[in-house]
Amino acid sequence: MPSAQGLGTRFWALIGATFLGFLGIGTVLPALAPHVRYDLGGTDRTVGFVIGTFSVVALMSRFVSGYLADHKGRKIAILVGLFSCALAGGAYLLPFGLSGAYLGRALQGFGEACLYTGAAAWVVEVAGVHRSARALGFLSSGIWGGISAGPLVGSWLGTFERAAMMQVVAALAAFAILSRVTEEYVPESRTPGRKWLKKSMIGPGLATGFVNVHYPVVAGFLILHLAQHGNSGRAAYSAYAFVILTSRFFLGGLPDRIHAGITFYGGIAAMAMGLLIISTGPSPMVAVAAAALLGFGFSFPWSSIASTVLRRTPERERGSVVSVLSASYDLFVGISSFAAGAVSDRFGYSAAFVMAATSLIAAALAGRVVFRDLSATPIDAEATSETANTSH
C-alpha cells in the first residue's frame, strides 16, 4: 500500500482493521454472561469475575503494549493484539468449562491493550502528527462502531458459539488486512533505559482518568435511574452512544484547528451539564437530550489531551504515552465502578451522577497542566530535539 502521509489507503486500512477487531469483541460480550451463568453453571459472582478479568488483564498489559509498540513496531503490536483476540475466540470454544471463559477473557484483555496502543500510535503517524486529533477521532469512531455493531451481529448469529467463531473470523480478517500495510516506523535497536511513567504524564493521566469516571455510572446506572422517571434509559443511552460516534467522526479534528484547551474545557462543561440534568430525574425527552449533550461533550476531551501530548512526544515514545493514558482510563473506570455502586447503594442513583459531574472539577484542574502552554513546548525538555533528530 502507498506510504504517503495522510488520510489515504493505509490510514483507512488501519481504521477498518481496528473496527473488525472491536466488532469481534462486541459480538461476544452480550452473550458471555448468559453463557457463563446457564451453559457453564457459574454463579452471579462467577459472571462478575469472568467479565472483570478483561479489565484487570488489559490494565496490566498496558505495561507490555507500550514497550512492544515502541521497541518492536506499531504493526507488530497490532498484529499481536489481533492474534490474541483470535485465540480468545478459540478459547471460548474449547471444552474447558469456566477455565476456557477465564482464558478467553484474559486473552481478549491482552489483545485489546496491544491492538489499541499500536493503532493509536500508528494512525497518528500515518495521518501526520498535525492531524493527530482528527486521526484519533476516526479511530475512536471505528472502535465505537465495532463495539456498537457487535451486539447486533451476535444477536443475529443466535448462539454464543457462533459469536465466538465470529470473533475469530473478524480478528483474522483484520490480521490479513494489516499484514499488507507498510509501516515506516523503525524502532531503535538500543534505547536508553527510561521510566514507564514520567512525572510529565501524571497530569494528562489524571485528566484522562477523571473525565472517564462518568462512564461506569452511565453504563451501570443510567437505565436503572431513568426507569423511575419515564423509563427512557435505553433511548438515552442510545443517544449518548450515537452522538459520541458521529461527533468523533465528523468533529474529531477540532483540536487540530483550534486551541485544544477550548475543546477540552468546552467538552467537560457540556458533560457536567448533561450529568447534572440527568441526576434530577427529568422527563424522557429532557433525559434523552441531556444524554446526547453528555455524549457530545465526551467526544472531545480524549482527543484534546492525546493530540496535545503526542505532539510533544518523540516518535520512539508514543506507544508508551498511549499506554499510560489508556492505563489511566482502565484504572479510573475500575475504581469508579466500585465507587458508583457504593454511592448509589447509600444515597441513590442521582448521587452517582452528581459524583461523576464533580469528578470533572478534578479533570479541569489536571487539564491546566496539559494545556498551560500549547506553543509547541515539549512535555519533556528533550522531546523537540529528539523528534528533530529522528529520521526514518
Radius of gyration, CA atoms, in whole angstroms:
20 Å
Report the order of strands and helices. HHHHHHHHHHHHHHHH
What class, by secondary structure content?
Answer: mainly alpha
Q: Any idea what the CATH architecture of the largest domain is?
A: Up-down Bundle
**What is the name of the CATH superfamily of the largest domain?**
MFS general substrate transporter like domains
Question: What percent of residues adopt helix (DSSP H or I)?
Answer: over 70%
> Strand percentage, roughly?
under 5%
Provide a descriptive summary of the structure in words:
The protein is an all-alpha fold and 392 residues long. The chain has 2 domains: 9-178, MFS general substrate transporter like domains (Growth Hormone, Chain: A); 199-376, Growth Hormone, Chain: A (Up-down Bundle). Helix content is 78%, strand content 0%. The chain contains 16 helices and no strands. It has helices spanning 9-39, 44-71, 74-93, 98-127, 132-157, 160-178, 202-211, 214-226, 233-251, 254-257, 260-279, 284-298, 301-311, 318-347, 349-371, 383-389. Helix 2 packs antiparallel against helix 3 (74-93), helix 8 packs antiparallel against helix 15 (349-371) and helix 14 packs antiparallel against helix 15. The longest helix is centred in the first third of the chain and has 31 residues, at 9-39. The chain is globular. Residues 375-392 have low confidence and may be disordered.
